[in-house]
């Protein structure tokens, strides 16, 4: 009572490396991680040794920089072997759609403006501009509320860094008030 007709086995789908060539965006990201790791390592090696030559101020930055460099190298090898970053199955994205760069542009613009105004206006106002730009980029349109929250978070950050950690940050326009 066995069935003599066996359906044909469909061919296996092609591996990602066989379907497409080298992914330039993935390669750029991988090389960017390698560059970041190399820059972190170069900066880490400039940190002077502490009192104890085994565990000093270099240990954690060295672990992070070597780990970043290793990760970037592995990513680069994977991309060169044909690997690609694919959206997860549950993501509702269109890989062929043009990216909307307004939000990253707002965040970057706010960061650059805040960094440029950090010395003349002070840490609190400069970082508040950065926080404001992030909130605005994420869709918050109640400007007075957003400005108040940004100023409050920047002020708390200033107090923690200056009084709690003993760091010196520019007071700017708020000199004498803070």
Question: What is the secondary structure topology, with strand pairs?
Answer:
Elements: H1 16-19, H2 24-44, H3 59-80, H4 102-116, H5 118-121, H6 123-137, H7 143-164
Helix pairs in contact: 2-3, 4-6, 6-7
Runs with pLDDT <50, length 5+? Answer: 15-19
- Oligomer status: single chain
Question: Could you tell me how far the N terminus lies from the C terminus, measured between alpha carbons in angstroms?
Answer: 91 Å
- Helical content (DSSP H or I, runs of 4+): 55-70%
Give the total of domains: 2
Shape: flat
- Element pattern in H and E: HHHHHHH
Largest sheet: none
The structure class reads mainly alpha
Strand portion, in percent? under 5%
Q: On the 0-100 scale, what is the average pLDDT?
A: 85
Keywords, separated by commas or semicolons:
178 residues; mainly alpha; 58% helix
Describe this structure in words.
This protein is an all-alpha fold and 178 residues long. It has 2 domains: 16-80; 102-174, no CATH class. The N and C termini lie far apart (91 Å). Helix 2 runs antiparallel to helix 3 and helix 4 (102-116) runs antiparallel to helix 6. It has helices spanning 16-19, 24-44, 59-80, 102-116, 118-121, 123-137, 143-164. It is 58% helix and 0% strand.
